[in-house]
Amino acid sequence: DRGKEAKYPTREMIDFTQIHINKLPRVLIMGRPNVGKSALFNRLIRRREALVYNTPTDHVTRDIREGVAKLGNLRFKVLDSAGIEAEASSGSVLSRTAEMTGNVLSKTQLALLLVDARDGVLPMDLDVGKWLRKNAPGMKTIVVMNKAESLDDCDGTLASAAGEAYRLGFGDPIALSAETGLGMAELHETLRPLLEEYVLQNNLCADEEVQDNDSSSEHMECKLPLQLAIVGRPNVGKSTLLNTILQEDRVLVGPEAGLTRDSIRAEFQYEGRTIYLVDTAGWLERTKQQEKGPASLSIMQSRKHLMRAHVIVLVLDAEEIANTRRSMKHVEVVIARRAVEEGRGLVVIVNKMDLLRGKENYKLYKSVTEAVPQEIQTVVPQVTGIPVVFVSALEGKSQIAVMNQVIETYEKWCLRLPTARLNRWLCKVMSRHSWKDQAAQPKIKYFTQVKARPPTFIAFMSGKTQLSDTDLRFLTRSLKEDFDLGGIPVRILQRTVE
Ligand code: GDP
Ligand code: GDP
Q1: Per 3-state DSSP, what percentage of the chain is helix, strand, and coil (rounded to 5)?
Q2: Ligand approaching nearest to the C-alpha of 63
Q3: Where is the Guanylate kinase-like domain (predicted)?
């Protein structure tokens, strides 16, 4: 469906935003004059500022513009090659330019060779192709037929342009329009596997091997402001709990500039950490409505709101559980499941435990403390060990138990494990497990954490072997046990490598 501006997938495996700007892969835009290089460059960097290197040579200003491109989930450095183009098309050898372009080429991972789809492939385009092959042998080059917005698959104009583009010898071309944005999703789909491969091979996402006692990089991510949501049905004690948390010198201040104002209710400091309280007022009322009718837009929006939180605290009422013999109502089940599906950290608080004290309540007390963790496990079987804290918000110290658990969950959620350590672990784990027969043993080439928040891993499978659901469960369980990741959603994805 070329030509439609398709939606970019929202959840991606590799978080390009976590890569340092100087380490981003570099993509060079090449092509003869007027094919639309600047137009594509500008579209890719959008409003971001471009850095311009001015290299005046022989009275001609040759410049290479560099900017950070954002395309769907992808981020990369993009270079617009006015200087190279001039040299390539004129055939003149300007030593300074050659030197400069040599520098650029050696640091570039990919080239986009632009042609004008309406003109087809001209001799000058072939020259640019030849120049690239000579000066950057082996560089992955993608032919981009620009200005394709008015060409039509039906009358064959696009097909014939594509046919011509093969003459450049760089494989399948893609068609787009830098001016209208048509076909950018296809560019995304073409670039994605190439850039992801580069990121993985160069280990740009996973941290370098760090000493086990040096967790500075893990630390940094955990120091990012924690977005916390406290949810529960009316009267379970959310406000009371929140007031205890915010007591003393922890001053309640308004949202910081730059944050979406409607989603943050308060900012506070807890033991040197900044915590944003995500506003969830009205969420439950809307969820109740939803139980009756179809989901409206506003419900969807408020759900999205809640799911911005890193850690979700779900408050239950101990007295109610004791009276009704049911830990979770429908709405609470919905919240717990959603939180886990969305990869949030979940902490369950059972409040008003003071009402179940005393000898006469012993049985009730015991049954509540046993039933709640069991029921959570049934509700979200995919995450074992979701923490449950029993408190009384009316009494002092409850906030400490709650916040300690919140922070513990958040730190696990942020954890990053170095690739070398993971692969040593994998080796041990695989030998610990016995498969029915040798052939059934999955062949994992290597294993790496692609992102934190929540921890997400990729198993690179060699050849045609695949991890079965049982294998995935086994690996997830082992990861959680060995790295103390219980209670948070951990994801393992698999990829095939040759
Ligand atoms: P460069 O010399 O390769 O950097 O080309 P420019 O980006 O300056 O574009 C040359 C001309 O082509 C300008 O007039 C642009 O407006 C036009 N142009 C660029 N992209 C497109 C496109 O996708 N469709 C059409 N119709 N015109 C385009
Ligand atoms: P919210 O609607 O969830 O914000 O609930 P509130 O914080 O307003 O509390 C509802 C009622 O429960 C109030 O009367 C509180 O005093 C009471 N409450 C809250 N926490 C506790 C607790 O730990 N023990 C007891 N016994 N009552 C509590």
Answers
A1: 40, 20, 35
A2: 1
A3: 25-227
